[in-house]
## 1
Amino acid sequence: MLPHFLQNTEINDGFDLLVILRRHYCVGNRQSWWWPNFLSLRVENGIEIEGATQAQADLSLCFATILGQNTKYEYAVTSLSNLYMFFYDNIAKNPNDDLQLYSTYPNPHLAQIAQPYYQDSILQLLAQLLPQDIMPLIRISGFYQQKATRLITLAQKIIKDFETFHNFSTQVTKEWLLSQKGIGLESASSILNYALKREEMVVDSYTQRLLGHCGLLFDDYYSIQNFLTQNLYKAHDLYGDMPLAQIMARFHGKIVECSKQYKIAKLAY
């Protein structure tokens, strides 16, 4: 069912939709990107209520994108946490990196291993593993053999083509991502926006359903993206100096929360 505030409402572009949703959905403080990670300071019901003190490229969200395919959010989170605890147990820590430094995070161990200076070590470790080494850790996410293979392959390809995660985060293109097995348009956009903090609007089934019930039908993924980003630069009037990439992430979050709250169903043609 379409919420009353979207019924009989003229929506000419993404900015119009953002203005309406912003009145009804809060997706965290000014540091929040909606989708939480291990450096989020507070998470409630899958929403990043208090974001990390500094937004930075995050390898864990690249993995989360793959683990989250065709499964519930909770199962993907559990799998990612299991995977990162495995990394925590098998990667040597910096002697000066005291666990007590992360005592304010929901999970100090995961916050520690998610720090930027461990990301290359994680890639190196993952690239050397066999699928069966991590399959038990991510079993709950479903398709665990396929996902284990794709995670390992992604790590190997990042090392081969970019050497370091920093190089990957600054140089990778959407075309490169789409050339990787198991990464489609939605996953590529999620990696670019949420993991790498790029200006990239994510389009998913929640987005298509919401727009469809508003009478807005499109031929393909890029048409929806173009509609949502049209005039979105005006959002700086609402959010001040917040980066456009973060505004896009929060916008996507509001769309998802609205679609989930009102159980907006797929249109029948």
Note: The mean pLDDT is 96.
## 2
Amino acid sequence: MGEFRGVELNDLVLSSARLTLRPWQDSDADAVFTAMQDRGMHEFLPLPDPYTRQDAAEFVDEFGDEGRGSGTGVGAALVESGTGRVVGSAALRLPKPRQVSAELGYAVYPDAQGNGFAAEASRVLAAWAFAHGVSRVAIRCAVGNLASVKTSLNAGFRFEAVLRGDVSVAGGVADSAVFARLAGDDAESIEPVAPELPTSGLGDGVVSLRPLLPGDEHGLLEQDQDPLTRQWEFTDKLRDPDEHIRLAAAARLHWLVGPVLRCAIVDAATGSYAGMISVRLHGPPNIGGIGYGVRPAFRGRGYTSRALRLLVPWAFDVAGFARLELGAKQDNAASLRAAQHAGFEADGVRRARLRNPDGTFSDEVRYALVNPRYRSAS
């Protein structure tokens, strides 16, 4: 019989307002098999492909219990209490001797997604772990697994780090986002650092803004290697192409947890990636630091000014920023012009603040815009 700190795990059943977390039964195999025929279930889970009825039978018979028999984990079927329907799976992997952290995993089946079941199950399992002396419970998910990221935040887990090449996904490995709760943390849901952009993005008919996405790394790499871009960089070292892949893959994660909101500037006529504009959240609350860059083929069209004019109303009226700031090296006339054309106001000069590739330093010319609701009160 498997025990953890005096509690027998084989028959352990937990419950919440809507769910029963119970051991797997042979009769659950049909629900598991049906769910795993949905291709969406394979994107972030290292599953057999094709997923057969034999795979489902082995899961409910053996793998799904996640160490109940050995006292090392609690795997459970998530059962909707009112209907008896199996809506997913969850697992609490308990700390080994001389370890302090447990880890949670979960999957909600396609016909039950969007109901908050994963967050509800995560709260139940975390509460049980804390009640039995576990001091930390973590969740790891691929950086692109936005549903799991949102679940972690909804269940009160705080974002801690990105680990490179840490989790298996369809087709290989991916960076992971790590979230955790300590026994003494409150269990309140954690709000995203910024509201999402409209589904259609922000547009003016010439350019549009949307979150940076996987696939945009090709444009990022082109920008990084462009001689004019290199002129205004801080060092002469090119970024590794993998850095651009990682940046694009994690952009939606960072939109939820910070510290940078990255938008692609898209050419409306072709749908092509034309550049990037970002809002950094470092520093005082509700203050955004803006950065931008445009691919060589789209320069000279005023795209940066357009992107700034699209971003500002959203940042002030929807995201609640009080002030937006940006700066550029004193000789970067194009960047300074873009700020002026977008209505940003001169905000001083910081002497010898921005490093040049040759190791010297340039003055930074600063621009800013203050949200009118705060300007009138000052």
Note: DSSP finds ten helices and 18 strands in the chain.
## 3
Amino acid sequence: MKGFYIGYINQLKGKYRKFTLIGAASFLILLFISCFSFGFFQEHFTNGVFEINRETTFTGKLYMQPFPFIRVEIEKGYFKDIMLVKQGKFGISEDDMDIKNLNNSAVDITGHLIYFNGQNVLEVTDIQSSDKVINIKPPTFINQGVLEVTGEIVDPKCYFGVMKPGFGKIHRSCAIRCLSGNIPAVLVHRNENGFESYFVITYPNLKIDNTPILKLIGKTVRLKGKVRKGRNWHLLQYSEAMHPLIIKEQAFSYYQENSSPPEEEHLCITAK
């Protein structure tokens, strides 16, 4: 039969050969474009770092309120407040035997550093009282009154470097477990320019108990509460009486690669 082709006997000829070559080339080009587009339009990883294989020791002053942190002097007259968490999905408590009686004292603390966007968290592996005389005053938080802040509630350990992504719906179950272990909750607000502000959520009784906010994690929410402005971290006192509002079930679905902390004087919030 004229034009009939048997692959294991004949060579492909004429219009069949031309059609096959054009079709194969078109398929490969389309496949390349699809693969490139799929990768290009994916959300990029953050540049947060978790030094899992490296331990760093800091000497500074330990504070347990309004959340567990160590204040260290980076250079003369410049201080950094590093949030403290335990290994695994647990926060640090004043009832921990290795921390009891160390509040407001000089300590040598060792752990795995987590950092992103100017913020630091330390996964503590060891803490000891320090013999050094340290003249470090507690940070000042300036009262801003009752304000509304829109953003996403995250667990800072994952968000700042341990997990990628450490935010959004895909990370919700992990964040719930971390915050259930009393790691301090952080409300991340991002303004229209991609600049982020970080509000540590506190409670009227000064205890970390994130149970009331677990239903809000991984969603875009608006919280209203007393805000205090700090240098490294801001504070937002949460109360269910302030009627938290879920703006949408999906949290941030984008990530600004070039986001950086706002100016010290600028808070990305709206007064009400």
Note: Residues 253-272 have pLDDT under 50 and may be disordered.
